[in-house]
Design brief:
Blueprint lengths: L3 H12 L4 H14 L5 E3 H8 L6 H10 L4 E4 L2 E3 L2 H13 L4 H5 L4 H14 L3 E9 L5 E9 L4 E2 L1
Antiparallel strand pairs: 1-3, 2-3, 4-5, 5-6
Length: 153
């Protein structure tokens, strides 16, 4: 489920000697520090990362160099919806529970993670699929996944 950018970030962190469990916790901390916003300041990240704060600046450097965080000048970064989704997927690939990683996302970002997971498992996907019923009734399915024999909604 990890993207090329997240695989590169993981490889760079490993090259620098950052263990996967620490990388996972730093990733969760980054998502937590910018929950409900796209702005991430180093101060908020340091607070969220707790005992891992010594690795925070290096971690943000890895994210920024890989396009997973956009430097805004000073000690601020932007994590857009796409980057947050990729970081949640990265945390999951590093062993975080999907619930833990995804509860830090907005509903739209969560839907993107679901779509990414379905696609990674061979499902064709559609977002906001509308089913029309009798008369004027309709129902919208946020994320729909299908294979030749299985449909998941």
């Amino acid at each position: 489920m990890a993207t090329l950018r997240t695989r590169c970030a993981i490889a760079e962190a490993r090259r620098r000697g950052i263990r996967d469990d620490l990388l996972r916790e730093l990733t969760i901390a980054a998502l937590s520090a910018c929950e409900g916003s796209s702005a991430l300041t180093l101060d908020r990240f340091l607070e969220a990362s707790g005992p891992l704060c010594d690795l925070s600046a290096e971690y943000m450097e890895i994210l920024a160099s890989g396009g997973l965080a956009k430097p805004l000048g000073g000690e601020a970064y932007e994590l857009g919806a796409e980057q947050k989704v990729e970081l949640a997927a990265m945390a999951i690939s590093l062993g975080a529970s999907p619930e833990r990683a995804c509860r830090l996302l907005s509903w739209a970002e969560f839907e993107s993670v679901v779509e990414m997971a379905l696609g990674a498992n061979g499902y064709a996907t559609a977002r906001h699929y509308v089913v029309k019923g009798a008369g004027r009734s309709r129902c919208e399915i946020d994320v729909l996944g299908a294979t030749e024999s299985v449909v998941v909604a």
